[in-house]
Each structure stands twice: as C-alpha cells, then as structure tokens.
Give the backbone structure.
Amino acid sequence: MTDTSSETKQPGAAARHKVLIIGGGNAGISVAAQLRRKLKGLDVAIIEPSEKHYYQPLWTLVGGGVFRKQVTERPEASVIPKGVTWLQDSVTEIRPEENAVITASGESIGYDYLVVAPGIQVNWGQIEGLEDALGKNGVCSNYSYDLVDKTWEFIDGFKGGTALFTQPATPIKCGGAPQKIAYLADDTFRKHGVRAETKLLFMSGQPSIFAVEKYANTLRKVIERREIDARFRESLVKVDGEAREATFQNLDSGERTVIHYDLLHVVPPMSAPDFIRNGPLANADGWVDVDRETLRHTRYANIYALGDASSLPTSKTGAAVRKQAPVLVKNLVAAILGGSAHAKYDGYTACPLVTGYGRLVMAEFDYNNQPKETFPFDQSKERWSMYQFKARILPRMYWWGILKGRM
C-alpha cells in the first residue's frame, strides 16, 4: 500500500533514507513533492527545523502596507508532502565521503542521494550596529518576518527628512526587493503630502540598478521620474541607531560617507549557510558547487542542489526554483533508476519588479541576461495587470501548485 500521509520524526528515529533533502523551504518542498509524484512510495525525508513556512515574495507588499504579514505564514507541517518524513532538526555538517549528515542534535543521518536546499543566510551582524538598531529609530527591513510590519509603520508614519534604502554587494534573495520598497515609500510620501520635504536615497553595492539592460532602461526612468538619488558601489558598513547615522564605503575608492537618516530600510549581506560555506560541498565563493545545467554536484555524483545556496549563476528567486526543481527531479529520478541525466536548466529566473502601487515590470531572463518572457507583450513596461499577477495570482500558485508538485 502506498503511504499517503506525511510523518514527523524526532532526531534519531531514522538512520538512513533513499533521498535526504536539506531544507524545507520552497526548493526542498517542491523537490520532495515532485519526487513522490514520479516515484510512488519513494523514501524521502526533509530536514528542516522551522515550525513555520513563509511565502517571502509577498513581504515587499507587507512592508508597503498592502497585506498583513500573517497571510504569508503557514505551519511547516501543512506543506510537507504526503508520504515524506519530516525530521525537525538542522544540519551542522555534511560528510559526503560517508553519505551522511550530522544534525544539531548530534545525530548522523545517512542517505543514498542528497538534495541540498537550505536557502540563504541573512548576515545581520556583518553591518556594525545594525542588530541593535533594528525595529527602532526608523530602522527596518523587509527581510525578516518579525520586522516587516515595522517597515510599514515607519513609512506610513514618516513626516519628511531623509529616507534611505540600501542594497548590499553580495548576492541576495529577490534581487529587486531593495528598490521595490523605495518606490512604494515614494508613492506613500506623495500621498501623505511629505515628498517635497523628503530626500529619498537608494544606496546600492551593486554596479547598476539591474543586470538586464531591457529592464534597467525602464527602472532608470522610474528613478528619474520619482527623483530618487541612486548611488552605486556604495556598501553599508555601520549603523548608529541613536544618532540616526549610516556609514557607507565606496567599493572602488574605499572612501567612507556618513549620511544622517530619518528612515532607514536595510537589506543586509547574505551568503550560503555557514555549514555550507565551511564544508566540503562549497566552491571558492562558498556556494554549493553544482553543474549549472544538470544541478548535480561537480564532485559528488549522488548530491544535487538548487535554490539560493547553490552556485547557479542566476538570480536567487522563487521563479528560478520553479524551473530548477523539475530539472533536478528528472535527473535524480534517472540516477535512481540507473539512467543518465538529460534534463538541462537554462538559468531562467524572474523578478517581478514593483515600481509603485498598481505598477510592475515582470522581468524574466536566462543565464545570459537575455529576456525570456512568458507573456505576449513587452514586459519591460510598467503594468497594472502584472502587479495583480504578483499580488493575487502568484501566492495561490505557490501554496496550491508549486508546493504540491503540480507546477
């Protein structure tokens, strides 16, 4: 009889699994669901410590006051696919030579095949003073469930002055999010009649507003229209919450600049989790070293990775995972059945760029930063329809389609 229920086990309850997945986020759940659809009865386990599962792409609109943050949350148990074992623990070490992982509880769990999808690590502590400043004195961030409603509180209550929005030089999840909240804030300031008394700065460690020129052209016009002071190659290195001062370092000259702010939205540096960065699966930059087409590890044939912690040279978005997961699953199933990998991932990703309330540029592109668009119109234009697609359709696709292995 095929098992149709999911199972939660405490650490130590199982010593080995046919397929072990690290991470119960978008990537890990999607892969588990698709595997179970393709191979009925396959022994699959997910290691994930969190009690809650979040639809993080909606946090931009939570920070913009459109949704309450609670609508982005579900119990983790509710998204574990039927028949998949949930090991509620976290991984501290991977031992590929032993085909085993070590968990925080000290257990060793073996595998025949390993899928690495732990997501990205948000490094708040790499900016001096930031952790102490968060959530008060105008300092906020959409990159934390606990803080995202503070973003709207501070934007909605802003009375004028300097509003400062940052983006780090490191890769981040949802690379467009740092600028999107700036556009929503600008709309809000204008609605409240305080924009004339406001200086709005976007300080980015990146070299430009967006990597794909077709969409960058539109975004530059948005910045000009909104009279945003956008500066690039500027990395936030220190926050003094009491003094309301932010210190930036120019990545080319090394020169430091101190800016007084009244509102500061911070996007901190990010990386692969420490157990990945410091472990045997990492490349020189600290990401899980996988083949960019097959998603199989470059050195260990029974290990695969996808999502934010992987070395795949594309934007770290849920849309990328949606295209990566079927490729990984096809190649993994082929390996389990004794075949060879034929499915290939072309680097597709998407970034729904909110440019204001009711406006969105749907950027879709591949490894070569060439547009790879879905809809039969020019997606570089700001559209109300694409805003509605992000706000209303994509969350439904996520909960009822992607996490169920249906798409």
